[in-house]
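User: Could you go from structure to sequence for me? I need the amino acid at each position, not a summary. C-alpha cells:
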C-alpha cells in the first residue's frame, strides 16, 4: 500500500498510521480535511485551537511540514524517513519552476533562498533562522539544508571547478561530526543536543553563464565560515543527573586502542567523576567518524593524539578531590587517591605538578597602589571551582581553536565570493529545576531572535502598511521588548547586575607554562595580556565577562541578520519523549504560543507579503502594458527619470499612478481560471506596491508571456532578415554562375567554330583532291572496262551490283573513309556497317566485301572496300594480283612513300 510522507508518496506500509488517522477523522467529525491544508493561513478561523488541530491532523497523516505565511513549521517526525531527504527530492525542488507550489518542505525554503541570492541583479544575502526548543529538530534541519545546498550549488561550469566545489562541500559537511562531537551532549531533552549556537555562512560566488545578463547565473559554493556562540562549557565539569558530558569524552574512553589507552591513562572500565552514565551507549559515540572527519579537515594524527591526550588530562583533573582544611592558613589537603590523579593530569597536560596544585589551592590577590601580592589559601569549594574553571578554560579554548581550524579549512578567499546564505541554529529555550548562567544566556539569545522576528515581520509590516496608507486593522501581538529590557537594558538590568567571578589570571599563567604543543598554541604567552592582567596604575581595562562577551556577539549576529533577507523555520517538538506518532497537544500548544505563530498567521493571511517599490515595479512590469491594446499607446509615457528636471513631484506621482493602474488592469487578462479573474489582492501604497504571492505569480506569468512574444517577434524579424539575406546571396550566386556558364559556352562555341572551319577547309581541300584522284582512277577503270568489254563482252557481263558499287565508290567513299577512321565512334561490325552505309552497297552481299581500316594496319590510314568480283560477280581473278579482291597489306607492294593511288579508288597515306 502506498503511504504518503509529507505529502510525498512512499512505498512503505501504512498500517501504523491508519488507525490513528481514522481516530482523528472521527474526532474531526466530518470537517474539512485539515491535513490537506498546506498553509495555516487557510485555516478558518485562525485560532490556536484550529492551528493545533491542523498540525495534529497533518502529523497523523505523516505530513511534517506546513507553511504558516512567512514561516515554515517543521514537526519532528522522530523517525527516520530517508525518502523525505533524498537527493532525488532535492533535485525535484531545485528543478521545479515554482517550488512554493510543491508540498511544503525545508527544500522549498532552501531553493527560495538560493534563487533569491542568485537571480536578483543586486545580490541580497539570505539567512535562514531555524528556531525551536531543544530536541525540536533544528540541527537536523540545518544539516539537511547544508546537504541541499551542497547538491544544488555544485558548479556546472567546468570539471575542475566542480571538483573544488565538491571538496569544499565535503569539508563543510565534515565539520558537522567534529563540531557535534565536541559541542553536543546527551541531555534529558535530546540525545544529541547542541550545547552551542552556530551561524554558518555558506559563501557563494557568481558566475555568468553567458555574456548576456538574461542568461541565468551559476551560483557555486566556494566556502563557508562558522561562527559559534556560547559553548556550554560548564558541562565539562558539571552535568545534571541523567545527562552526559560532551560526546568526545565518551568517544575517547570507548573507542581508544590499547596503545592509546596506555598513553592516555584511560584503562578499560576506569571511573571518572566527570564522565557520568558511561554505560549508556549512543549512536553519537563514534570515535572513528570524528577522527576521520578531523583528518579530512586537516587535523593530522599527531595533533589529534595531542588533543585526546589533553582531554584525558582533563578527565583526570576531574578526579582531583579536595578535603576541608583544618587550618584556614593552610591549603586544602587532597583526598585519598587524588594525588595520583593530579600527577597523571599534570603529566598529560605537561604542566609542572607543584605549581598546578598550588594554583588550584592558593589564590593570589593584588592590592594596594603598589599592587602588592597576597597569597591566600582557598576553601575546599573554591578549590573545586578553580579546578572546574581550569578545565572549562582549556576546553573552551580547544573548542574555539577547532572552530578556527575548521574555518581555515573551509573559508574561501574574501575575493572569491559575492553572496552568502546564513544558517542560524541556536539552542532553544531551556528551563531546568536548577539553571545556570548559560541557561540565562541561551534564553536571552532566543528572546533576541524572537525580537528580531517581531521587529522584522510583525511590527515592521504593520507599521509599513499604516505608513503607506493601506486600510489595515492592526493585529495585536506579543512583543518581547520588555523582557529584553529586563535582561540587557540600561542602566539597570540583569546583565549589568551580574558580576560574574572572571577567570583567575593565575590559571591562565599556569597554562602558559605547559610544555604541551597544543596548550602552547591555546595559551600563548602574550605580553599584552600580561600587562592587562597586571596593571601598574589606575587605568584598568574593563573586564570582559561571559555575559558581556555573549551580548556583544549577539549584537553582531543581529546586525548580520538585519543585513539579510530572513526566512524562518520553526521546529516543533510533538512530544518530549522523542517518540514517533505521538502528538501531545499541551506541549505543542506551549511552543506555538511561545513563538507567536498565530499572530504570524493572522498577519500573513491578511497581509501582503510582497512589497515592491514603484520604480522597481514599473521597471519589471511596464512591458505588461503591451497586453492592453490601448494602454501601450496611452499618453503616460515612460516612467519618470530622476535626471529629468521637467518632472514635478505631482506630475510624476500622477503619471506613476496612471502607469501602475495600467499595469494592474492587465491582471484580469492574465488569469487563466475564472477564480483567478476575481480582483487580485494588490494595493498601491504611497511608495510601494503591496501584493500577495498569487498576484506576484500572475504578474510574473504575464511578464513571461510578453517576453515570449517579444522573443518570437525578434526571432521572426531575425529569420526574415536572414531569409532576405540568403535570397540575395542565392540570386547573386545564380547570376555569377550564369555569367560564367555563358562565357564558357561562348568560348567553347568559338573553339568549335574554329575547329569546324579547319575541318571544313581541310575537307574541301581533301574532297577536291580525292575527286580529282577518283576521276583519274575512274578514267582508268572505264578505259579498262571498255577494253574488256571490247575484248570479250559475252564472257564478262557487268552485273547491276557492280555498276552500283562503282557509283557508290565514286560518290561516297571519302565519307566512309573519314567515318571508319574516326578516333572514336563505331568499331567492328558497326564500322563495317557505317562504311557500307556510306558506300551504299547491296545489303544482301555484306560478306562479299572486305573492309580494311587504318586501325587494322599499323601506321596507315586507309580504307579499302575491294569488291570480290570473283566470288560475288564471278569476275576472274587477276593473274598479277593488281586487281586482287583480297585485303591489301599496308606497306605491301612497291607503292611509293606518301600518297599513292590504289586501283579501287581508296587512298592510303603513310602515317
Ligand atoms: N526531520 C527529522 N526526521 C527524523 N528525525 C528527526 C528529524 N528532526 C529531528 N529528528 C530527531 O530528533 C532529534 C533531535 O533533533 P535535533 O538534534 O536536530 O534537535 P535540536 O532542535 O537541534 O536540539 P538542540 O537544541 O538540543 O540541539 C534528532 O536526533 C533526530 O533523532
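Assistant: Here is the amino acid at each position, in order:
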Amino acid at each position: 500500500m502506498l503511504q504518503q510522507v509529507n505529502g510525498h508518496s512512499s512505498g512503505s506500509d501504512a498500517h501504523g498510521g491508519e488507525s490513528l488517522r481514522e481516530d482523528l477523522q472521527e474526532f474531526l467529525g466530518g470537517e474539512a480535511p485539515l491535513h490537506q491544508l498546506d498553509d495555516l493561513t487557510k485555516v478558518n478561523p485562525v485560532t490556536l485551537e484550529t492551528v493545533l488541530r491542523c498540525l495534529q491532523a497533518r502529523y497523523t497523516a505523516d505530513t511534517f511540514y506546513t507553511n504558516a505565511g512567512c514561516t515554515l513549521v517543521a514537526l519532528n517526525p522522530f523517525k527516520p524517513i530517508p525518502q523525505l531527504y533524498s537527493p532525488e527530492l532535492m533535485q525535484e525542488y531545485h528543478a521545479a519552476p515554482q517550488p512554493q507550489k510543491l508540498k511544503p518542505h525545508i527544500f522549498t525554503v532552501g531553493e527560495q533562498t538560493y534563487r533569491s541570492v542568485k537571480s536578483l541583479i543586486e545580490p541580497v544575502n539570505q539567512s535562514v533562522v531555524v528556531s525551536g526548543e531543544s530536541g525540536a529538530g533544528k540541527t537536523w534541519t540545518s544539516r539537511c539544508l547544508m546537504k541541499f545546498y551542497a547538491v544544488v550549488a555544485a558548479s556546472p561550469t567546468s570539471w575542475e571547478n566542480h571538483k573544488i566545489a565538491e571538496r569544499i562541500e565535503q569539508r563543510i559537511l565534515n565539520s558537522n561530526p567534529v563540531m557535534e562531537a565536541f559541542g553536543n551532549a546527551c541531555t534529558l531533552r535530546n540525545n544529541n543536543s547542541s550545547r552551542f549556537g552556530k551561524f554558518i555562512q555558506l559563501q557563494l560566488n557568481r558566475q555568468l553563464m553567458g555574456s548576456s545578463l538574461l542568461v541565468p547565473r551559476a551560483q557555486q559554493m566556494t566556502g563557508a565560515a562558522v561562527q559559534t556562540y556560547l559553548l556550554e562549557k560548564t558541562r565539562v565539569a558539571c552535568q545534571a543527573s541523567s545527562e552526559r558530558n560532551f560526546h568526545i569524552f565518551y568517544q575517547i574512553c570507548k573507542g581508544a586502542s590499547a596503545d592509546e589507552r596506555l598513553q592516555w591513562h584511560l584503562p578499560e572500565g576506569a571511573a571518572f567523576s566527570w564522565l557520568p552514565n558511561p554505560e549508556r551507549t549512543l549512536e553519537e559515540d563514534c570515535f572513528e567518524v570524528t577522527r576521520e572527519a578531523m583528518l579530512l579537515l586537516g587535523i593530522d594524527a599527531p595533533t589529534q593524539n595531542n588533543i585526546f591526550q589533553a582531554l584525558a588530562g582533563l578527565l583526570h583533573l576531574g578526579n582531583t578531590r579536595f578535603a576541608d582544611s583544618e587550618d584556614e592558613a593552610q591549603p586544602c589537603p587532597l583526598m585519598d587517591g587524588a594525588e595520583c590523579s593530579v600527577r597523571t593530569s599534570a603529566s598529560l597536560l605537561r604542566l609542572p605538578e607543584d605549581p598546578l596544585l598550588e594554583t588550584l589551592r592558593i589564590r593570589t590577590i593584588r592590592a594596594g597602589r603598589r599592587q602588592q601580592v597576597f597569597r591566600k589559601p582557598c576553601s575546599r569549594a573554591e578549590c573545586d571551582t578553580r579546578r572546574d574553571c581550569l578545565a572549562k578554560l582549556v576546553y573552551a579554548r580547544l573548542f574555539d581553536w577547532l572552530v578556527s581550524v575548521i574555518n581555515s579549512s573551509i573559508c574561501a578567499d574574501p575575493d572569491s565570493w559575492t553572496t552568502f546564505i546564513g544558517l542560524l541554529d541556536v539552542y532553544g529555550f531551556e528551563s531546568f529545576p536548577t539553571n545556570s548562567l548559560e541557561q540565562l544566556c541561551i534564553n536571552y539569545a532566543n528572546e533576541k531572535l524572537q525580537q528580531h522576528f517581531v521587529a522584522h515581520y510583525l511590527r515592521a509590516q504593520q507599521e509599513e502598511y499604516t505608513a503607506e496608507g493601506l486600510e489595515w486593522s492592526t493585529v495585536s501581538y506579543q512583543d518581547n521588548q520588555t523582557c529584553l529590557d529586563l535582561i540587557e537594558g540600561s542602566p539597570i538590568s540583569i546583565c549589568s547586575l551580574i558580576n560574574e567571578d572572571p577567570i583567575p589570571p593565575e590559571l591562565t599563567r599556569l597554562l602558559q607554562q605547559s610544555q604541551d604543543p597544543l596548550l602552547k598554541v591555546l595559551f600563548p604567552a602574550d605580553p599584552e595580556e600580561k600587562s592587562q592582567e597586571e596593571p601598574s596604575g589606575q587605568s584598568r581595562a574593563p573586564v570582559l565577562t561571559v555575559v558581556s562577551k555573549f551580548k556583544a556577539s549577539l549584537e553582531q549576529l543581529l546586525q548580520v541578520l538585519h543585513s539579510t533577507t530572513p526566512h524562518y523555520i520553526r521546529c516543533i517538538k510533538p512530544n518530549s519523549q522523542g517518540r514517533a506518532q505521538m502528538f501531545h497537544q499541551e506541549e505543542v500548544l506551549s511552543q506555538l504560543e511561545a513563538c507567536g505563530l498565530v499572530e504570524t498567521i493572522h498577519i500573513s493571511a491578511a497581509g501582503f507579503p510582497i512589497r515592491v517599490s514603484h520604480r522597481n515595479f514599473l521597471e519589471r512590469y511596464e512591458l505588461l502594458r503591451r497586453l492592453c491594446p490601448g494602454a501601450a499607446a496611452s499618453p503616460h509615457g515612460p516612467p519618470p527619470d530622476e535626471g529629468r528636471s521637467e518632472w514635478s513631484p505631482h506630475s510624476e506621482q500622477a503619471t506613476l499612478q496612471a502607469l501602475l493602474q495600467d499595469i494592474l488592469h492587465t491582471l484580469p487578462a492574465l488569469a487563466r481560471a475564472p477564480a483567478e479573474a476575481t480582483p487580485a489582492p494588490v494595493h498601491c501604497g504611497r511608495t510601494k506596491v503591496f501584493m500577495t504571492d498569487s498576484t506576484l505569480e500572475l504578474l510574473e506569468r504575464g511578464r513571461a508571456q510578453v517576453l515570449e512574444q517579444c522573443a518570437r517577434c525578434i526571432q521572426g524579424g531575425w529569420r526574415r532578415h536572414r531569409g532576405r539575406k540568403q535570397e540575395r546571396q542565392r540570386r547573386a550566386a545564380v547570376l555569377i554562375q550564369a555569367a560564367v556558364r555563358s562565357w564558357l559556352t561562348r568560348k567553347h562555341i568559338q573553339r568549335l567554330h574554329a575547329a569546324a572551319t579547319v575541318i571544313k577547309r581541310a575537307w574541301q581541300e581533301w574532297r577536291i583532291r580525292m575527286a580529282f584522284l577518283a576521276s583519274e582512277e575512274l578514267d582508268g577503270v572505264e578505259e579498262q572496262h571498255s577494253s574488256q568489254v571490247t575484248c570479250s563482252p559475252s564472257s564478262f557481263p557487268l552485273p547491276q551490283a557492280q555498276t552500283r558499287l562503282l557509283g557508290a565508290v565514286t560518290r561516297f567513299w571519302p565519307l566512309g573513309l573519314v567515318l571508319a577512321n574516326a578516333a572514336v565512334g563505331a568499331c567492328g561490325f558497326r564500322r563495317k556497317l557505317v562504311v557500307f552505309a556510306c558506300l551504299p552497297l547491296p545489303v544482301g552481299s555484306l560478306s562479299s566485301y572486305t573492309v580494311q581500316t587504318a586501325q587494322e594496319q599499323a601506321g596507315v590510314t586507309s580504307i579499302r572496300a575491294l569488291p570480290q568480283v570473283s566470288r560475288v560477280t564471278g569476275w576472274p581473278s587477276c593473274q598479277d594480283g593488281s586487281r586482287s579482291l583480297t585485303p591489301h597489306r599496308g606497306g605491301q607492294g612497291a607503292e611509293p612513300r606518301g600518297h599513292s593511288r590504289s586501283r579501287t579508288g581508296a587512298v592510303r597515306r603513310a602515317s
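One structural detail worth keeping in mind: The pocket of adenosine-5'-triphosphate is lined by residues 76-81, 132, 134-140, 190, 192-194, 427-428, 571 (CB under 6 Å).
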